[in-house]
């Protein structure tokens, strides 16, 4: 019998090298983008408890920016921004401090559906990863893991959006 796999199933040598999670979020794209583009905010919504902290003041503004993130294992990562469309898309390639990126990429894409709803897509692409030490972890990264981060980001963005709308409503009543 030939090695035919049911849709969605893979063998280790056929592991998907581009993994994606997507969902609709009840918050505006600018609010969500602010949470992703500010590294100091990322540990608040990291669904895999991998990100420990990032120094304040590293808000990403342009392709070529580099931000530093401390991981929960105590190591630092320099993240090289390779795509940026303010409010819509951001992507970075991680690297050990002082080294070139290893070849994997994290991307966030935001598609405004209306003023208060956004389609959020999170992608991990390791198709160019050549660092043998990182391949096992890359292969183990699943859509469910990405979805955990998208879900936590959604919950945070929706709470912040609701609080901002509530505060704006109180100001209108008081005014």
Automatic annotation (TrEMBL):
Superkingdom, natural source: Bacteria
Pfam family, one: Polyketide_cyc2
Gene3D superfamilies for the chain: 3.30.530.20
InterPro entries with a match to the protein in the record: Polyketide_cyclase/dehydratase (IPR019587), START-like_dom_sf (IPR023393)
Protein name: Polyketide cyclase / dehydrase and lipid transport
